[in-house]
Amino acid sequence: MNRLLFTCLISSLFLVTSCEKEELNPVSTQDYRTQLIGTYEGSTSYEDVAMSNESDESMVAKDQLFNQVIEIEKSTTQANGLVINGNVLNLVTQSKSDKNKYDDIFLYSAQDCSGKEAYSLTFLPKTQRLILEYKHDRACNVGVLKQNSTFDGFKKKRTN
User: Fold this and answer.
1) Is residue 89 classed as helix, strand or coil in its secondary structure?
2) What CATH number is associated with residue 142?
């Protein structure tokens, strides 16, 4: 009986130890940040939803804009960051788990409003495709505004 209990205990300990090794040594992914830098052309689809606090009115606007251009540059202030369209406030940092994802969340509070802005950028290196999602939720005394947009485009070839 003691021998069976001892064998089960050793087997359990081995199982736990082997599981911990997997978690401590994640599979590393390749860093495509240098390849990602450049100009992308594609389309942007967006949806804005506005709801009034003073009445039951709400408004939804949806549209798709074609021939949109986005410029991605390396950040000069953040080692693993990228800047979208040259605006340093549009800074996204690299995900620790996926080297092809960048994101950032910005919370703010003003006199009559507070909100959250979030950027999520995904790069697909084989096809040179960029997907940039932007979400902005703003709550003010007069109402709520939710903006969602997604840019989907491909890297433009350099012409020298």
Assistant:
1) strand
2) 2.40.160
Q: In whole angstroms, give the CA distance from residue 12 to residue 18.
A: 10
Q: What pTM was estimated for this model as a whole? A: 0.76
Count of the separate structural domains present in the chain:
1
Identify the domain containing residue 87 by its residue range: 34-155
Q: Is residue 54 part of a domain?
A: yes
Q: Is residue 68 part of a domain?
A: yes
The closest alpha carbon to 154, from 76, 81, 68, belongs to: 68
Q: Which amino acid is at 11?
A: S
Residue 111 confidence (pLDDT): 86
Measured CA distances, 88 to 24, 27, 77, 81 (Å): 34, 31, 9, 10
In a domain, 9, yes or no: no
Structure confidence at residue 159 as a pLDDT band (50, 70, 90): low
Q: Residue 131: CB partners within 8 Å, gap ≥ 6?
A: 121, 122, 124, 150, 151, 152
40 C-beta neighbours (distance < 10 Å), count? 22
Q: Which amino acid is at 3?
A: R
